[in-house]
Amino acid sequence: MDNRKSYLLRIDPELWAELEAWAAAELRSINGQIEYLLRQAVGKRKRASLRKSLSETQAADPKKK
Questions:
Q1: What is the pLDDT of residues 22-63, one digit of tens each?
Q2: DSSP 8-class letter at 1
Q3: Alpha carbons 22 and 31: distance in angstroms, whole number
Q4: Helix axes 30-60, 13-25, angle to 10 degrees
Q5: Which residue in 20, 41, 47, 62 is deepest, having the highest Cβ count within 10 Å?
Q6: 42 within 8 A of 34, measured Cβ to Cβ
Q7: For residue 62, what are the CA distances in angstroms to 1, 43, 44, 49, 59?
Q8: Are the C-beta atoms of residues 28 and 34 closer than 8 Å to each other?
Q9: Whole-number Cα distances in Å, 37 to 5, 15, 33
Q10: Residues 61, 54: contact at Cβ < 8 Å?
């Protein structure tokens, strides 16, 4: 059984068309393309948050540099 969460997404038709073309070019389904893009965005945000936390920690304790 698939453990994925279903979610209804309302999206602008122009954006849909762009995603559809992009997905086709990368041989993915629309759903697969959206999930791929969301995973990239979440990963990027996590890395940025980690860098920010690290720099704040180093700024609070300059001896750790």
A1: 999 999 999 999 999 999 999 999 999 888 888 877 777 766
A2: -
A3: 12
A4: 90
A5: 20
A6: no
A7: 51, 28, 26, 20, 6
A8: no
A9: 16, 13, 6
A10: no
| Claim: this prediction has a pTM higher than 0.85 | no
H helices of the chain, where? 13-25, 30-60
Beta carbons of 26 and 33 less than 8 angstroms apart = yes
Q: Name the 3-class secondary structure at 11.
A: coil
**Whole-angstrom distance, CA of residue 58 vs CA of residue 37:** 32
How many angstroms separate the CA atoms of 21 and 10, rounded? 18
Query: Could you give the CA distance from residue 43 to residue 31 in angstroms, rounded to a whole number?
Result: 18
CA distance 8 to 44: 24
